[in-house]
UniProtKB/TrEMBL annotation, chains A, B:
Name of the featured protein: MarR family transcriptional regulator
Keywords assigned by UniProt, alphabetized: DNA-binding, Transcription, Transcription regulation
PANTHER family per UniProt: MARR FAMILY REGULATORY PROTEIN (PTHR42756:SF2), TRANSCRIPTIONAL REGULATOR, MARR (PTHR42756)
Keyword Ribonucleoprotein: no
Record bears the keyword Transcription: yes
SUPFAM superfamilies: Winged helix' DNA-binding domain (SSF46785)
Origin: domain of life: Bacteria
SMART domains attached to this UniProt entry: HTH_MARR
DNA sequence: GTAATTTTGTTGTAAATACAACAAAAATGT
DNA sequence: ACATTTTTGTTGTATTTACAACAAAATTAC
């Protein structure tokens, strides 16, 4: 069976590396763009869900988000019904940078899919979605301390 | 155009996270498995090339490799013709863990491709290779300090 | 042949990442 | 209704990661 994991790892590290360098311009340090983009697209999302979407440790997300708040890119708001959760919203400052983050992502996407037909782009997208769904369960399980058998 | 970058990022972080947890058993800390696997498969490779293959910063690779050496998983050997480079080789200890790392990778790959036909697995592999080649140039360029226009 | 550039490797420093452990609110079970 | 478990968030600590700056060998340019 073909080893797709390494290709995925290489691509992910390369693109993440590029983004981190490019977003320094907006005073965003390593990883922060991941959270900010999602908060802009899902205003009101809570930290725990965000960590789950991004696939990063809860405590890592907590600190990244705290920093975004201190820097004024986002704000935490208490929920009326649930005293435990804190909903996350972009501030004006956050919304102002969002278009640049989006543009950069679109550019990288275009570079990544250079030479792809519409049909091929469609295909890889759907296949990747299936892969992602396939591994989500293992990730959650292993994070909780369960062991995989193999 | 479909956003494949996020899917790739999610998959990569999830699988890396799983691997890091599972390889603690062998006293491998975060990221180390990446280097060790490649050194086992490309004995004699030098640090600089390894960083390029993995797509990680040169100095990050340097420290990860130094630690692998201290722990006795690999060894650095001087080259006779070139006094600058140091070739990397797995030690017996390194070669002993390699099969476990390989097995884990194969398992994750299998999980990732669950429900895929042989043809589909083949397809995603080739499409991913093309993506990887597409972005390699940008990565090297941006790492060297060049700016992308978009 | 030698000057300029590139390659390869290292170290100082700052920051992100993740594990462990804790706390409190909420949801669930009985 | 209350006890138990799960969810959500935080903080202490150790480690990885990466940028900047440096050094030395090798390669390239002239």
């Amino acid at each position: 069976m073909k080893d797709i994991l390494r290709e995925i790892g290489m691509i992910a590290r390369a693109l993440d590396s590029i983004s981190n360098i490019e977003f320094k311009e907006f005073d965003l340090t390593k990883g922060q763009y991941l959270y900010l983009v999602r908060i802009c697209e899902h205003p009101g999302i809570i930290q725990e869900k965000l960590a789950g979407i991004i696939k990063v440790d809860r405590t890592t997300a907590a600190r990244a988000i705290k920093k975004l708040e201190i820097q004024g890119f986002i704000e935490k708001r208490d929920d009326e019904d649930n005293k435990k959760i804190k909903k996350l919203y972009p501030t004006q400052k956050g919304m102002q940078v969002y278009p640049f983050l989006k543009r950069e992502g679109e550019h990288s996407n275009k570079v990544a899919l250079d030479g792809f037909s519409e049909q091929e782009a469609e295909t890889i997208f759907h296949l990747l979605q299936r892969v992602r769904k396939n591994i989500e369960g293992d990730w959650e399980s292993v994070k909780k301390g369960n062991k995989r058998d193999y």
